[in-house]
Amino acid sequence: MTADVSTEQETEATVPPTNRESMLARIADLDAQHAVAVAGGGEKYVARHRERGKLTPRERIELLIDPGSAFLELSPLAGWGSDFIVGASVVTGIGVVEGVECMITANDPTVKGGASNPWTLKKTFRASQIAEENGLPSISLVESAGADLPTQKEIFIPGGKIFRDLTRSSARRVPTIALVFGNSTAGGAYVPGMSDYVVMVKEQAKVFLAGPPLVKMATGEESDDETLGGAEMHARISGLADYLAEDEHDALRLGRRIVSRLNWKKAETFSGNGVGYAEPDHDPEELLDLIPQDLKEPFDPRDVIARIVDGVSTGSATMRANEVAFDEFKPLYGSSLVTGWARLHGREIGILANAQGVLFSEEAQKATQFIQLANAKNTPLLFLHNTTGYMVGKEYEQGGIIKHGAMMINAVSNSTVPHISVLIGASYGAGNYGMNGRAYDPRFLFTWPNAKSAVMGPAQLAGVLSIVSRAAAESKGKPYDEEADAGMRAMVEAMVEEQSLPYVLSGMLYDDGVIDPRDTRTVLGIAFSVIDTQPIEGATSFGVFRM
C-alpha cells in the first residue's frame, strides 16, 4: 500500500506545469524583482529617511498625480545584474497631473543619497527621449547628492545631456517643472536652474554649485548650508526659487497648481476621440493559458490580439457597422506574419504579429506594404514579436530573402507613424530589426516575462561555433575533441540563455519594462494616449526598395 502511494506521488510530482502555472511562476518572480527596486536603499535607509519627515519617491509621485489615476513606471529594473541597486536610484514614468500627461522623474535619496550612477543616466536619458518624442511636460522631483564619485568618469561627460534636454524642452514650449525636496548640488543644481518653474521646500531644499566644504577649499570662505543655498535664500535673495513650500505636501500641491495653469492641451489627432469602446471579446486573463512554456512551440497571435484590442460584443453601443475586432489584411498571403487593423481604447491601430516564428520573403513583402498603408493614413503601429528571424538556406537566398528582408527593414526604418513593440515570445536575429526592435526607436517597447532576445537561439549559436571549430580541426588534420565540444556547447547555450532573459535586457534599458501579459491592454492604452499628445504624420517617402 505504501509503495503504491509512493508511486502515485512520484507520478504526480513529474507532471509538468501547465502554461498558466509556468507563466504565473514567472510573474511571481517578476513581482519579486520589482519589489527589490521599490525597496530602494533598503529598510535601514528608508527608515532613516522617514525619521527626517520625508516621503519616499513613489509616495511623492502618488500624491502628485491625479487621485485614482495610473502611473506607468518605466525601466524599473534598470541596472539589474550590475553592481548597482536595481532601479538605478531614480524612478521615472508617466502620470496624469491635473489632467495633463507628464513625464515624472524622482530621485531616490534612500540609495546613496540619490547619487547618480551610470545606469541612472541611461534611465534618465530614456525618460527624456520619451518626453521629447511625445511632447510631454516634465516634472523633476529632486533630492540627489549629485554624481556617484567612484564612477564620475562615466557620468561627467554624458551627464550634461540632462541639462541640455531641459533647455531644449523649454525652447519647444514644452514646460519643465522642478520640485526640490532636498540636496540638488554641483551639476544637479542646474536641474532647477534650467527648469521653467521651481518649487523649493523650506528648511529642506539645498541648491548650490559647491557645498560649504568645497567653498572652504576653493575660496577659504566660511558658510553654512542655509545661507549658501537654502530654499528661503533662493526664494528671497537669488530668485532661483519661484515658490517656497512649507513642507513636502505643500510642494506637491504647488506642483499640481502650476500644471493646472499651463493651459496645456493634447493634439487629439485621431478620429476616435470621445468615442466609447467595448472591452475585448475574450478575457485577458486567458493570456496565461495561451503562451507555451517552450518558445519553439508555435501559438496563434490572433488569440493574443483578441484579448488585447477592443471587442465588438453583440449589443455594444460602440459597435460600428460591419466592424470586427480585428480586420486582418492579406490573411492568405505570408501566413507566418499576421497583419491587420483594430481599435485599442477607441484608437485605430495597425498590428504586425509573428505567427509561426520564421519570416519568409512573402511575410517581408506583406509587412512592407502594410507599413506603407499605415503611413498613408497616419495610423500608429503595434509590433508583437515572436520570431526566430528571416529564413535561411539556398532556396530562400536565391529567392531574394535578403532583398525582401531589407525591404521590410527599410519600411520600418523610414516609417514616421509612432511604433510600439511588445516582445511576447522570441525576438532573434534580424527578425528583431524587421519587427522594430530597440535599435529602431519604437516610442515604447515592453517585454513579457517569458520573452527572449538574442542574435540567434542558444542551440543554434552553440551549433554554429561547433561546426566552425570542427572544420578548423579538419583543415589542420587534427582529431576533434568531442568531449570538449560537448562542454563548449553546453557552456555557450547556458551563457546565451542567460543573456537573452528579459531581466538582463531590461536591466540594460533595452526595453521600457517587463510587464504581466494581463496588463498589456492597459499599458498599451496609456502608451497610445501619450502618443496622441502630438499630431501624427505618416512618411511620404521611403528609401530605395530593391525589388
Describe this structure in words.
The structure is a single chain. With 547 residues, this protein is of the alpha/beta class. Helices cover 42% and strands 18% of the residues. The protein has 21 helices and 17 strands. Strands 1, 2, 3, 4, 5, 6, 7 and 8 form an 8-stranded mixed β-sheet that branches. Strands 9, 10, 11, 13, 15, 16 and 17 form a 7-stranded mixed β-sheet that branches. The longest helix has 20 residues. The chain is globular and about 80 Å long. It starts with a helix and ends in a 16-residue tail after the last helix. The mean pLDDT is 90.
Give keywords.
547 residues; alpha/beta; eight-stranded mixed β-sheet; 21 helices; 17 strands; 42% helix; globular
Brief write-up:
With 547 residues, this protein is α/β, with parallel strands linked by helices. Helix content is 42%, strand content 18%.
Helix content: 40-55%
Q: Tally of extended strands?
A: 17
- Outline type: globular
Question: Percent of residues in beta strands?
Answer: 15-25%
Low-confidence stretches: none
What is the straight-line distance between the termini?
73 Å
Query: Could you tell me the mean pLDDT?
Result: 90
Helix/strand class: alpha/beta
The biggest beta sheet is recorded as: 8 strands, mixed
Oligomer: single chain
Q: What Rg, in angstroms, do the CA atoms define?
A: 26 Å
Q: What is the helix tally?
A: 21
